[in-house]
Amino acid sequence: MSSRFEKYCRNKTEAAIAAHLPGFATVEAPREPPPGMVAIGNDWSRRLFDGWFYRTEPVAARQVPALSLVFVQSADGNTGADDPITLGGGETDKHLLYEGLSRVDADAVLAGAATAASADIVFSVWHPELVRLRTGNGCSRHPAQLIVTESGNLPIDTALMYAEPSLRVLVITGPAGAARLAPRLSGRSWVEIIDAGQPVDLRSALRALYARGMRVISAIGGRRTADALLRAGSVAEIYLTTSGRPGGEPGTPFSSAPIPPHRVLVEKRGLGEESGVRFQHLLLEP
User: Residues 170, 109: contact at Cβ < 8 Å?
Assistant: First the structure.
């Protein structure tokens, strides 16, 4: 592990430990995981989440990963913001759900190029309780980093994930993007390019990822990527946190594509100073 990545991990861990997490109370939840789903949690997470967290298992016959979308939106339905915490989802959402249960046993976290544009960003879990839960389930310390880019215009020379050999990074792009990226990634064996055609075919990319052993993927956006995944019929479930206050960039719902038929499997309400927050687990029909 490089000193830069070590410092990044230390800062993220310290922030997660220091965060005040009021937790959630259950509005609706099944007593047991429905068929085809698994329950995730330990004593610490179940206390804060007020129960088990559920996710869909992949169906081997389909040869694609089980993929979830994870979003936080303001009370008026906006997701666009320079800093997502300003949308009002709260610290519990950030540290327990977004950087926690939604990816705690994921093989990979998928993001669009704009979402992953920061020089210092790695999509992982950070609270020690969640790290223990992840590694205790036999998962690698960090999920693979999946970046979707049509153009191949990525900050290869400055971004942390492309400079850290202990990570696994896969870039999903088209022929032009692959040609642009290949010489820039020479010598970085931990970064792999997946050419998914022109235009980029996410269903094809997901089959390629499944063939590489990736069974569970947490997708965190942005909106263009969420649109493409929904239109491709590749989303099994949506983890959606809605804050109790308006905000964000107007007219920025998490997707312009209609949400397919679905039902609310789990609903939670925030406690304490996060009492206006609502979390929903939306299960999409196959």
Answer: no
Share of the chain above pLDDT 90, in %: 83
Contact 101, 16 (CB under 8 A): no
Whole-number Å distance between alpha carbons of 169 and 159: 12
180-202 per-residue burial string, b: 16 or more CB within 10 A, e: under 16? bbeeebeeeebbebbbbeeebbb
pLDDT tens by residue, 66-87: 999 999 999 988 888 777 778 8
Mean pLDDT of 217-239: 92
**In this structure, what token pair is assigned to residue 251?**
């007219």
**What is the number of other CB atoms lying within 10 angstroms of the CB of residue 145?**
26
Q: Taking a C-beta distance cutoff of 8 angstroms, is the pair 24, 182 a contact?
A: no
Three-state SS string across 73-86, please?
ECCCCCCCCCCHHH
Q: Is the pLDDT of residue 255 over 90?
A: no
Ordered domains of the chain (ranges, CATH)? 3-284 (3.40.430.10)
Can you read off the two tokens belonging to residue 146? 């999946």
